[in-house]
Write a structure and sequence with these properties.
single chain; alpha/beta; Rossmann fold; four-stranded antiparallel beta sheet; binds inosinic acid
Length: 177
């Protein structure tokens, strides 16, 4: 088990490179089977999912497309409060089978917002594929269809996930000590 320090915090290995790549192979096999002949559109959520999406997508062998989107939060008016906008979706998704690729589902609020936004464009279906989920933290009725790893409620970094924008380049997933 290795340890790293990122900014002011210490982390230790939680999920190794081999465990990640083996689990991605299993998940992608399931997706290849379930979505054969459906030409799914993978929508990877920036920034956190970029490494997971790149590895997952290289195991996808069926006709499919991938695109990268982002949820941007900004202060609206007093009545609207914080506004969450989906940016980067520049293609017609009506009638398409969408697979959202996310780094981690924590409370599930981000995914709920994302699914609500996408539904407005009338896709044929929307499912969620997450690298990590902290089931004990879930606050919404969102269903994560494909989860690589369920983890306890400890802050994690690496393999795309950050602590204050640092640590995304770590090859393993590390949890805070
Ligand atoms: P949710 O809306 O509460 O499900 O939060 C999802 C987002 O919070 C993820 O996309 C991450 O950007 C961030 N997040 C939640 N937990 C962690 C963590 O342990 N490490 C790094 N980012 C996290």
């Amino acid at each position: 088990m290795s340890k790293v320090r990122v900014l002011d915090k210490a982390f230790e290995t939680s999920i190794t490179k081999d465990e990640i790549s083996n689990r991605i192979k299993e998940l992608s096999k399931d997706i290849n089977t379930a979505y054969a002949d459906r030409n799914p559109l993978f929508l990877a959520i920036l920034n956190g999912a970029f490494i997971f999406a790149a590895d997952l997508y290289r195991e996808i062998t069926i006709p499919s497309e991938i695109s990268f989107v982002k949820m941007a939060s900004y202060e609206g008016t007093a009545s609207t409060g914080v506004v969450n906008e989906l940016i980067g979706l520049n293609q017609d998704i009506s009638g398409r089978h969408i697979i959202i690729v996310e780094d981690i589902v924590d409370t599930g609020l981000t995914m709920k917002m994302m699914v609500d936004r996408l539904m407005a464009f009338h896709p044929a279906s929307v499912s969620i594929c997450a690298l990590l989920q902290k089931p004990s933290k879930l606050q919404t009725d969102i269903k994560v269809d494909y989860v690589a790893f369920e983890i306890p409620d400890r802050f994690v970094i690496g393999y795309g996930l950050d602590y204050d924008q640092q640590g995304r380049n770590l090859k393993e997933i590390f949890s805070i000590i």
